[in-house]
Specification:
Blueprint: E1 11-19, E2 37-44, E3 49-52, H1 58-61, H2 74-91, E4 98-102, E5 119-124, H3 127-135, E6 140-142, H4 147-150, E7 160-166, H5 175-185, E8 186-197, H6 199-205, E9 217-218, H7 221-229, E10 233-241, E11 247-254, H8 262-274, H9 279-305, E12 310-313, H10 317-325, E13 336-338, E14 355-357, H11 359-363, E15 368-371, H12 377-383, H13 385-389, E16 393-395
Parallel strand pairs: 4-5, 4-7, 5-6, 7-8, 12-13, 12-15, 13-14, 15-16
Antiparallel strand pairs: 1-2, 2-3, 3-9, 8-11, 10-11
The protein binds thymidine-5'-phosphate.
Amino acid sequence: MKCNITNKNVEEIMSFGKMPIANGFLNEKDKSSEYFYEMTVGLSPDLGLFQLTNFPKVEMMFHDKYPFFTNSSSYMRNHFKKYAEWISKEFIENNSDKIIEIGCNDGTMLENFKNNKIESLGIDPSGNVAKIAKDKGLNIINSFFSENLTYSLNQFKSKTKVICAANVICHIPDLNDLIKGIDKLLSKKGVFIFEEPYLGSMINNVSYDQIYDEHIYIFSAISVEKVFSLYGFELIDIYPQITHGGSMRYVLARKNEYSKSPKVNKILGEELKKGFLDIDLYMRFKLNCLRSKERLNDLIDLSLKKNQRIGGYAATSKSTTILNFCSINSNKIDCIYDTTPEKIGKLSPGSHIPVIDSEEFKINPPDTCLLFGWNHKNEILEKEKNFASNGGKWISHIENFI
Ligand code: TMP
């Protein structure tokens, strides 16, 4: 598939090679029919939009067996509680205000509004997670968000005060359609708030594993401002976040409805100065990705030479990019420890490393462990502090991270 808003004029940056579906954990019997696509990224210079130039159909990624549950991280549960409290404080004025969450997953965020007595709606295309949210008593539609869907949402049309999303907007290929849908639902003073992994953090950390099929775009303040201004919206505020290894929260409103925080121009200026609209920045990123691949393979080979057993921690979607880009498979990594029942007992996509219950990590730890869940570092290192104190060694594909 190609992106809708920018398929003209995208300059190719690099290919990460053949990639499977990032969350496509599979059974042994399905190995021979596994789907692969070539994962390439590019930049649309007019919008400064960093994006996949080729990716699978969205139905292959978001379906009734989607194995990601927001609720699985206690840190993220707390983050969404605070996110919801902040929205209530800043934007909800009275009981007649309405809120919609796009990509509500298991309802972890939306349930925080239950006590607010405001009308809320969650929309999510993955049936299994949407069912969990429904079972919490939330008002949920199991569907992709689209302009078309808004025709069946009369009670929210032009009346919604807040539309919010977290780690979702980058999943939606057709930004034209998304923004037209948002435009239909928001009230005059309505705001659209979303947070996503931040392009600046990805470039700084060389955390290229932010790039996978579900992350069609990695946004910056510049790209958000430029894309939304095509539809009469402006960026009115911006809040850096530490989640997912460096994210950004964007607040958008109809032009001239709110005053703009000085932070917006400050961050836009910093991005311009760093070259976010300049392809050279991305060519340097490409070189850093290739160096990072070499460094990780050297680290792993060093451990293997010492006859050490290597494991991976957290079967994240990001791990699919690392393992496939770096050509690391079960000859090098024994297993990946994870808490998700839907992943345990399966093989990692493409690299076919067995995923086992993270309880095993305590019983029979490896000598060296590659931390795939690096964005949950504090939570995991605290939970598994005995590993390092008993001589275990954490490693990461991000230099100087551990
Ligand atoms: P994600 O980065 O694709 O969201 O996946 C997070 C994965 O990390 C998910 O499979 C659960 C796993 N995980 C653990 O196994 N242990 C942990 O302590 C945390 C925080 C996550």
